[in-house]
Amino acid sequence: MSRFSSTGPSQRVLRVGEQVRHALAEMLQRGELRDDLIETTVISVSEVRMSPDLKIATAFVAPLGAKDEAAVVEALNRHTKFIRGRMSPALRQMKYMPEFRFRLDTSYDNFQKINDLLHSPEVARDLDKKDEDE
Q1: Contact 38, 76 (CB under 8 A)
Q2: For 111, how many CA atoms within 13 A lie in the half-sphere containing its CB?
Q3: pLDDT tens digits for 68-78?
Q4: Please, how many CA atoms are within 13 Å of residue 20, restricted to the half-sphere of its CB?
Q5: Are 105 and 73 in contact (CB under 8 A)?
Q6: Facing residues of 50 across strands?
Q7: What is the pLDDT, as a whole number, of residue 4?
Q8: Which pTM does this prediction carry?
Q9: Is 81 left (phi over 0), alpha (psi -120 to 50) or beta?
């Protein structure tokens, strides 16, 4: 039985995920990927989650200002082999180059929903009552 709890990713997995995120963001920023849809869209890489064996990298991206966000994610997924090859120099310390998967980052939408709820009249009314009681 292991004395370590498996409640979340290890420090190594988190560190490698952050290194992959930086390398991926730099590659997209340099415009190395030749795709009309990707070249005309600013893509934010918010998080990269690595599998425990570091062989799969799931990148959560947010295409900023894109009309069809799903099309941008699909275009990135079409070019995963090219991206994997371009990432090799930046991640040369890794034993295996991870397989890339791209997913749409919906956390910004969730933040907006929470913000709207906090500023709704019902919540403001309840907060005013709490302030009056004190």
Answers
A1: yes
A2: 4
A3: 889 999 999 99
A4: 29
A5: no
A6: 57
A7: 53
A8: 0.75
A9: alpha
